[in-house]
């Protein structure tokens, strides 16, 4: 009798555990990008692919946020609306609804080489995938762009960079306040 109960308890726990496992794998957000490195020539048009798969299609646009970064600079963002920050890139809202968050680069320049990051936030899930773009200039014999690639140190995430920007702007605000305060104190002192 005792033994039977224990077996049953084990079976119930096993069932609960499997159920949890299935739930976890179902809520998985899948993001796939172009295989790195992507090679292009100056002047090319190129699609950097970033596709997302959600467990229950279609994509619920109200729970989705996308960000594309290049060396810490925000290129394009979807957060309730599409916001293209860099005139050299293009993204389509219609394609995004189908899970296609690819970024189109037109007329590529040498300084567009380097790492691109596709951030996908969906409900409580976040994924980041990186694509490394190599740009060759067939009109130049030497390759001089190599050392330009890692201006942004490895592992400095855009979130950290955003924080740095915030701190700098806070600093200027405080600085501004201090200056006006100093001016007021000076006025006080002078009028005495
Ligand atoms: C994804 O969207 C881009 C436009 O942003 C388009 O050029 C491309 O063909 C689309 N890819 C697929 C697989 O539909």
Which structural class do the helices and strands define?
alpha+beta
CATH topology of the largest domain: Immunoglobulin-like
Q: What's the arrangement of strands in the largest beta sheet?
A: 2-11-10-5-6-7
Bound molecules: 2-acetamido-2-deoxy-beta-D-glucopyranose
| Name of the CATH architecture of the largest domain | Sandwich
* Strand coverage percent: 25-35%
> How many DSSP-defined strands?
11
CATH superfamily membership of the largest domain, which one?
Immunoglobulins
What helical percentage do the residues reach?
Answer: 25-40%
Query: What is the oligomer described by this structure?
Result: single chain
Number of domains: 2
Major beta sheet summary:
6 strands, mixed
Radius of gyration: 25 Å
Anisotropy-based shape = flat
Q: Can you give the mean pLDDT?
A: 83
**Count of individual helical segments:** 3
- Series of H and E elements: HEEEEEEEEHEEEH
Any idea of the CATH class of the largest domain? Mainly Beta
* Low-pLDDT sequence parts: none
Organism: Geotrypetes seraphini (Gaboon caecilian)
Main location: membrane
Subcellular location: Cell membrane
Signal peptide: 1-27
């Amino acid at each position: 009798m005792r033994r039977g109960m224990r077996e049953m308890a084990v079976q119930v726990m096993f069932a609960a555990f499997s159920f949890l496992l299935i739930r976890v794998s179902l809520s998985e957000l899948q993001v796939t990008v172009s295989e790195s490195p992507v090679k292009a020539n100056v002047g090319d048009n190129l699609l950097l692919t970033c596709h997302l798969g959600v467990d229950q299609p279609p994509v619920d646009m109200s729970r989705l946020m996308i960000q594309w970064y290049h060396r810490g600079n925000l290129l394009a963002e979807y957060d309730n609306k599409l916001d293209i920050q860099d005139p050299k890139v293009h993204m389509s809202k219609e394609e995004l609804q189908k899970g296609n968050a690819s970024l189109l680069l037109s007329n590529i320049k040498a300084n567009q080489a380097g790492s691109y990051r596709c951030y996908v936030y969906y409900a409580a899930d976040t994924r980041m995938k990186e694509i490394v773009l190599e740009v060759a200039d067939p009109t130049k014999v030497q390759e001089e762009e190599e050392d330009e690639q890692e201006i942004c140190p490895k592992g400095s995430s855009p979130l950290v960079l955003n924080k740095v920007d915030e701190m700098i702007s806070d600093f200027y605000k405080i600085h501004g306040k201090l200056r006006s305060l100093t001016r007021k104190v000076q006025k006080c002192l002078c009028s005495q």
